[in-house]
Specification:
Layout (H helix, E strand, L loop, with lengths): L1 E4 L3 H10 L5 E4 L5 H6 L3 E2 L2 H5 L3 E4 L6 H8 L8 E4 L5 H10 L5 E7 L14 E8 L2 H13 L3 E4 L2 H25 L9 H15 L2 H9 L4 H19 L2
Parallel strand pairs: 1-2, 1-4, 2-3, 4-5, 5-6, 7-8
Antiparallel strand pairs: 6-7
Length: 241
C-alpha cells in the first residue's frame, strides 16, 4: 500500500499511475474523495495515509515542514518517506531533521507534470536523491521506475538545485515574464515566437505558489535570475547605442 498526502494536479497524476500497480490511499486537506476514487485510489484520513509502508508527500514546498511535523508521530518504523518537491536541499534537510531516525528517506523530483505526462511516462525524467534508504530497497524502486520507461537520474540535492535553477526556475521566470508582458497569439508570427507562447502556456497551467516556492526555496535561483536580468539589460544597452 502506498499513501499519498496531497491530491493537487501532480498528486492526482501520480495516483492515477501508481494505482495501476499498487493499492493507493490518498489524503487531501479539502474533500476530494470522488476525484480520488475516479483514478483508482482510495480516500483515507491523514493518519491512515501516514501509516502506510510508503508515504509520498505531494504538497507545496511551503507546506512541507508543517506536513512533516504532523506526519512524524503517525509514521511506521521502517516506512519509506518520499517527497516530490522541485527543490531538494531544504526538503532533504527538513526530512532528516523532523522525521524519526527509523524511517527511510528518498528525495525525488519527477521532471514532468499533468500536461507533459498525461498520456505516457515514456522518456520522462525523474531525479532521485537517495538520502537514507537501503540499497536493495532503492534498487527495487529504480527497477520499477525504469520498467515504466522513465529515465532515472541520480544526483545530490546540491547538484539538483544548481541545475534546476536554470532548467526549471529560469524557464518559469521567462514564461511568467511573458505572461506579465501580455504576449498575444499573432497571425504573423515565427516558430520561435510560438515556442515562447508554448512556455507561457505551460507555466500558466501551474500555480503561482509553485513558481514562488521553486524560487524562494532554491538557494541558486535568485543568483541565476539576476544574471539573466543583467544579460538582458546589457543587450538593451547595446541596442540603444
Amino acid at each position: 500500500m502506498i499513501g499519498i498526502i496531497g491530491f493537487g494536479r501532480f498528486g492526482k497524476l501520480m495516483a492515477s499511475y501508481l494505482a495501476q500497480d499498487f493499492n493507493v490511499l490518498a489524503y487531501n486537506r479539502s474533500d476530494k474523495a470522488e476525484a480520488i476514487l475516479k483514478v483508482g485510489a482510495s480516500p483515507g484520513s491523514f493518519s491512515q495515509v501516514c501509516r502506510q509502508p510508503i508515504v509520498i508527500l505531494a504538497v507545496p514546498i511551503s507546506y512541507m515542514q508543517d506536513t512533516l511535523k504532523a506526519a512524524a508521530p503517525h509514521l511506521k518504523e521502517n516506512a519509506l518517506i518520499v517527497d516530490v518537491c522541485s527543490v531538494k536541499i531544504l526538503p532533504v534537510q527538513w526530512m532528516k531533521t523532523l522525521l524519526p531516525a527509523s524511517v527511510s528517506i528518498l528525495a525525488t523530483h519527477p521532471m514532468f507534470g499533468p500536461d507533459s505526462a498525461a498520456a505516457s511516462l515514456k522518456g520522462r525524467k525523474i531525479v532521485l536523491c537517495p538520502e537514507r534508504i537501503k540499497t536493495a530497497h532503492y534498487k527495487r524502486i529504480t527497477t520499477y521506475l525504469e520498467s515504466k520507461e522513465l529515465v532515472v537520474i541520480e544526483a545530490t540535492p546540491q547538484e539538483h538545485d544548481r541545475k534546476i535553477s536554470l532548467s526549471l526556475a529560469l524557464t518559469h521566470f521567462i514564461g511568467r515574464s511573458l505572461s506579465e508582458f501580455g504576449a498575444p497569439e499573432l497571425d504573423i508570427d515565427t516558430e520561435g515566437y510560438q515556442r515562447l507562447l508554448h512556455i507561457l502556456g505551460v507555466v500558466e497551467n501551474d500555480t503561482w505558489q509553485l513558481f514562488y516556492d521553486m524560487n524562494k526555496y532554491n538557494p541558486y535561483a535568485g543568483e541565476q535570475r539576476e544574471l539573466f536580468i543583467t544579460a538582458m539589460q546589457n543587450i538593451d544597452v547595446q541596442l540603444r547605442q
